[in-house]
Amino acid sequence: MEELGKEEIEKLYKLSNCNMCGDCLDEATGCQFLGYDHERAVKEVTALIEGRDTPVLEDCITCQACQTFCPNGVNIFNWIIHRMDTEKTWIAPGLDRLNLYGLLPGLEKPWVMQKGDPDKPWVSVCLVHALLGPPGDIEMYKDSRIFKDLNLLGGTMNCLVGMTHAGLENATGPACLEAIKGNIDMYNTFCGGKEIIFSHDECIASLWQGEEQGLEVPFKHTHIVQYLNEYLKANKKDIKPLGLKVAHDSNCSIRYGPSREAWFDEFYELIGCTRVERRYDRENQLCCMPNFLLHRSAGAPERGVLPDVERAAEARKKNVDDAVAHGATHMAFICPGCMGNMVDDCLNVGLVPVNIIELAQMAFGERKARW
Predict the structure, then answer these.
(1) How far apart are CA 370 and CA 284, in angstroms?
(2) What are the Cα distances from residue 60, in Å, to 5, 38, 123, 269?
(3) Which residue range(s) make up the domain with 64?
(4) This prediction's pTM
(5) Is residue 371 assigned to a domain?
(6) Taking CA atoms, which of 87, 277, 291, 341 is between 20 and 30 Å from 285?
């Protein structure tokens, strides 16, 4: 990877804004996975900013939460993942950005899942539904009034944001900009410049990141929940309020681009659901940790860091227990990968796991939850 100069580092990561307060890594105010008290958090964030060695570069689980908790606008997680990538501290030996995607050539081979009205938008159905989602995910898009006459694009995955879960720099860094530009060109050509509705939050988040770095996206790009809300409002007379108490679960890419929280709140209100207020929601959401198979160290018991598989199980249990404790009957996901990871955890405590698209279909009486 090309070495960055001081000016470019400052432009991308805003390190000069850091006052070493430690809030981003302090378990009381920020990251829930490293277990740092305030003193330890200050020590490690100082080492991060100064470019010195720190166990953060090995023990981080790439949830990206620290990006949210910085009070001074430092792109702290972007800096962490930049150092992980350039110093090769995280990903398993022998893997890198190129051969990781090379293992899955189908990611770059789009196909038309549904040919609709040529004047209507496209929906990008991310391949994560098939790779990581629970059984039946792809079926949500077929024979649904919500997607009637729309054009469905399948077989692509634009989740350069998801590179972080392999310890590789995401779309905020220069290494990915060329790849994002290639994805933008592919989408624009394949869909004829028409509006694209992105079903996976990570896909559209990478476009937003590209825009922040100066790339132009020539087509209108819409988040799936924005589309659902407009559809629900246009068809309000057909909605049968569900009356469910729902624990909302967002994915890691929610840290990038415009806040989606108002969109989610409006969505639940439109379908007659209550989004339960709980500890591990909104800025305090917990990562489901899908990434430990690629992690070089995968925990370090000799330093008091649990193996990743145990940290992941603990985080998922905290999440579902918190939902039940606050009266939720369902847990709704916007990421098929998160849902796929947490289906069993939900069912074990009596929660019904459901994709947010399924909830909209349930409100129109089109389907029931899969479990």
Answers:
(1) 28
(2) 25, 17, 34, 36
(3) 6-87
(4) 0.92
(5) no
(6) 87
